[in-house]
């Protein structure tokens, strides 16, 4: 793991990852690594016809996130500069497992393993989760055109997959600090008290993982 704070925020679609990453980045002064979503040329096609466009969609995400992670490691982490990201590349396996047919999933899994096996692992992971109603409302409010076709059943499945993935990820990386935040109870966008409570949690884990001198 990096010797400087490398914080990743994860959770299902619409749970508030980017909003929290921006706020924590501004507070701690860490470099912000944003997730690429709208730039995926296949995503709108995927939401309309997932069977036809799932492999292209997942491969685009994987390759772009791999390049981002390489750049972050070379430019920031290797130079002892802290980073906070609103995703972690392991999330790709969640969506690929849900969207790809078995034969393509096996090919994808092999490529994913080859690309990601030497990438840096966060020392702190923030896992945001929320009820289906909360996620749907936040998706509606932000009004991304490409998300208009997301079905509640699909979002619910992804949320369940995230729970299973995070439990497995935590078992695989016992030295990592994982902070679980209920998005129904913590409205860090509209309530400063909720944000400050999260900041205190994060600071405690930074001190634990890195030391209070950072």
Automatic annotation (TrEMBL):
- Which Gene3D superfamilies does the record match to this protein? P-loop containing nucleotide triphosphate hydrolases
One MF term in GO for this entry? kinase activity
Instruction: Identify the Pfam families for this entry.
Output: dNK
* Membrane spanning residue stretches: none
Residue ranges of domain Deoxynucleoside kinase in the record: 7-206
Q: What superkingdom heads the lineage? A: Bacteria
Alphabetically ordered keywords of this record: Kinase, Transferase
InterPro entries on file? DCK/DGK, Deoxyribonucleoside_kinase, DNK_dom, P-loop_NTPase
Q: May I ask which residue range the UniProt record assigns to the signal sequence? A: none
Protein name, UniProt field: Deoxynucleoside kinase
């Amino acid at each position: 793991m990096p010797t400087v704070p490398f914080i990743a925020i994860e959770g299902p679609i619409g749970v508030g990852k980017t909003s929290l990453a921006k706020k924590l980045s501004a507070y701690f002064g860490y470099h912000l690594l944003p997730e690429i979503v709208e730039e995926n040329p296949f995503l709108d096609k995927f939401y309309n016809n997932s069977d036809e466009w799932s492999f292209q969609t997942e491969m685009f995400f994987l390759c772009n996130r791999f390049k981002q992670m390489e750049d972050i490691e070379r430019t920031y982490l290797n130079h002892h500069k802290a980073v906070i990201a609103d995703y972690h590349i392991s999330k790709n396996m969640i969506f690929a497992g849900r969207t790809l047919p078995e034969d393509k999933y096996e090919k994808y899994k092999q490529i994913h393993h080859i690309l990601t096996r030497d990438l840096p692992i966060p020392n702190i992971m923030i896992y945001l989760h929320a009820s289906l109603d909360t996620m749907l409302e936040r998706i509606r409010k932000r009004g991304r055109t490409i998300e208009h076709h997301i079905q509640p059943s699909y979002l619910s499945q992804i949320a369940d997959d995230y729970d299973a993935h995070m439990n497995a990820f935590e078992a695989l990386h016992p030295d990592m600090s994982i902070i679980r935040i209920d998005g129904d109870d913590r409205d860090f966008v509209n309530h400063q008290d909720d944000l400050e409570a999260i900041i205190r949690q994060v600071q405690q884990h930074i001190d634990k993982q890195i030391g209070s001198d950072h």
